[in-house]
Amino acid sequence: MPVRQIDTSLPDAEAFDAYSRTVAGAAEILGPSVGHLTVSRRVRGGRRAAGAGSGVVITADGFMLSAAHVIAGSDGGGRAAFPDGRDVPFEVIGADPLSDLAVLRARAGDLPAAELGDAERLRVGQLVVAIGSPNGLSGSVTAGVVSALGRSLPTRTRSGTRLIENVIQTDAALNPGNSGGALADGMARVVGINTAVAGIGLGLAVPINEATRRIVAALMSEGRVRRAYIGIVGGARPLPPRVGAEVGRDQGVEVVEVVEGSPAAAAGLRPEDLITELDGIPLTDVGDLQRLMSAERIGRSLPLRAHRDGRSLELSIRPRELHS
Questions:
Q1: Which residue, of 204, 222, 240, is where some domain finishes?
Q2: Which one of 178, 199, 222 terminates a domain?
């Protein structure tokens, strides 16, 4: 039987060829910057166990980005293997479980550093390429599209829960071991760090944007991220029409629970209170409140405006540092 030839004049053939060139080009540029991580952990009985994941080189002198859960419980380091054959030790510089980001330092010079992009520029349907070590198969490349933007992924520590905002959802195949690896655009710029496999054809990545760049910078310089904490569990709620007309918005943050002994409890907040403003900044959802919980507000007395049983309240609250 004669082999059927593809008519390269057809638009579909051109699109496929362009797709292949884009994916192959991104893999060629970015692949050398993505390492396979073997993480050393101490377990009961004094024994050691090994975990695995991926990491992305971001500076030539060995700084790497990975996912915090990849190195959780480690004894401070492990080994990073690269496509050029180098297998070097790394140390954990800092990890932030509430953003699921970690910064590592590989003991090697002249590593190929990836270029960081901006996830804020992504569009639904845009081509993305994932590179990592699924099931220990280092240098694996998958491709897909941005399935959705603006997702929220809850993370939890012993002292609080936080939402990772603007998480990227993709249908690029991700498997255990991809965590900590790169999600890149068609120009091989890292726009996300793969964090979770939420189902078949559903992967999630922490975005690289202005907020996460600040987190990375703090981890590189201080080894940790300082956050403020007021001690409430809250949720977005529509404001009563009179309150909405008064504040010029139709939504605020309802206090669902107040943590005993927290700054919120000391300030006099109660469940069912509606917070509409903190430190002079309007609040419409928990994300607005979360963004204000930055290091510079720790220990400061902040004005807080809330509504209770139809009455307007002017309170003062002094956030404490959140300890994970």
A1: 222
A2: 222
**How buried is 254 (Cβ within 10 angstroms: 0-12 exposed, 13-18 middle, 19+ buried)?**
buried
Please classify residue 220 by burial: count the beta carbons closer than 10 Å to its beta carbon, then call 0-12 exposed, 13-18 middle and 19+ buried.
Answer: middle
pLDDT digits (tens, 9 = 90+) for 214-270: 999 999 999 999 889 898 888 889 998 888 888 888 999 999 999 899 999 999 999
Establish whether 285 is a catalytic residue. Answer: no
The pLDDT tens digits of the residues spanning 93-104 come to 999 988 899 999
- DSSP letter (8 states) at residue 108: -
Q: What is the pLDDT of residues 262-292, one digit of tens each?
A: 999 999 999 999 999 999 999 998 878 888 8
Which among 47, 51, 73, 77 is positioned nearest to 64, based on CA atoms? 77
Asked if 68 and 99 count as a contact pair (C-beta separation under 8 A), the reply is yes
Give the total number of structural domains in the chain. Answer: 2
| Greater pLDDT, 157 or 294 | 294
Q: For residue 100, how far is the Cα from the chain centroid?
A: 5
Residues 270 and 205 in one domain: no
231 sits in the region (left: phi over 0; alpha: psi -120 to 50; else beta) called left
| Active-site position among 33, 66, 69, 96 | 69
Task: Tokens 């039987």: give the residue.
Answer: 1
What CATH number is given to the structural domain containing 253?
2.30.42.10
SS3 221: helix
Question: pLDDT digit string (tens) for 166-221?
Answer: 899 999 888 878 899 999 999 999 999 998 766 666 889 999 998 899 999 999 99
pTM above 0.90, yes or no: no
Ramachandran assignment for 284, one of left (phi > 0), alpha (psi -120 to 50 degrees), beta (any other) = alpha
Out of 33, 138, 179, 262, which one is annotated catalytic?
A: 179
Known catalytic residue: 138? no
69 has catalytic annotation: yes
Same domain? For 244 and 188 the reply is no
